[in-house]
Specification:
alpha+beta; three-stranded antiparallel beta sheet; two-stranded antiparallel sheet; 13 helices; globular; nucleus; Nipped-B_C; cell cycle; chromatin binding
Length: 404
Amino acid sequence: MTTDPVKKICTSSSNILKEIDSKYAGFVQMKSMEGMRQSYRLHSVLQGRTKKSVRGFTETNGAYQALNALLYTVIRNNKQHRRCFLRSLLQLFDEVGKTSLHELIYIADNLATFPYQTIDEPLFIIHNIDLIISVTGSTLLQNFQSLLLPTASNDEEEEESIESVMERLPPDTHALKECIDTSQGIVVLLMLNQHLKESFGITDSKLQEYSPNESSKQYDKSSTRRNVGAFQPRYALEYLDKENSGELPSGYDSHWLCKLYIDFKQLMMSFDVSTTFEESNTSKSLFASSEEPTAPMLEEDSNPKCMSSFEDHLSGPSSQQRIILTIHRVDNKKAENTFADVMRSSRTPVSAFAVSLGSKLSSPGKKKRKSGDAKKLKKRKISVLSGSESDSSYSIGLEDSNCA
């Protein structure tokens, strides 16, 4: 009743809700899901027979507020109750076919416009949306593709078009239609995901670092909402508009069916590309080398490009040169970097050698070696010839042992 358009009823209901929360801790959270769904039914009845979709927010002077903002405000202060409530709302999108698309849009409207105070709140929602999309969305996409007829050459096209998909439609498209109908909820989630990222300036790198189980003060910082306009899941709204106007009969035409599939596939591909790109950048950042970005990195002695780059540094005009050798070793359980700094003088080929083997070893000489470990050692030798004294040479031996 706190969402009632009649101001007197809304104010009275709001006071009662606050009083219940102050007297009976946890009672509002226990009934919050039922209250959200009942509010949708209330506005469906109030809207009557109009063919417009029931939206879950109001607009005042360009600012958008969730209809159930008060309910969320009451639950928000308790982190456990808040997360349980948000997770329950998102589970409605994962329960394929149990909730109508009209109600899912209403729920998404509220999620897009709730009065979030900390950055943890939208991050938690986006994190759970990604989990649902990666599992349910991918499954729906694969189910649709498996129902299509195979191509003549049995090779899938890199970029499917509406015409190419129409050629592969089976005679009975009932199963394909059901698959597309259920995919509309995932489409709403995909667009809600993007809307929240834009509203709170959340990048994919921040999302990769976020963990719901990690208690960090940086996530308790106040959030700042940008004015990016109203949340508009246009694909789902377009689908409902055509359905309400009678343009989508029980077995709607093949062209529209294929268009919905292509739209869904493109949204899923954009989600996969951004996720894969960030995972790649994260893995690369684990192996950041030294402070000098122009220093050569030698991974294999046989690599001619590495050797030529190494020799270029030796042929410089200065009397003293600094060579950075960075050796990366990846273990199944742990990733460590080994850095070797070599100072070479043009006159005296004497090197100052320093090696860092990670957090477990305070110095290179403190590691205890067992007799059986001698077989596991790898030796790399890099011979460096002085430009002025071709007869004199020296070598540097780096030992890489199993750190597991």
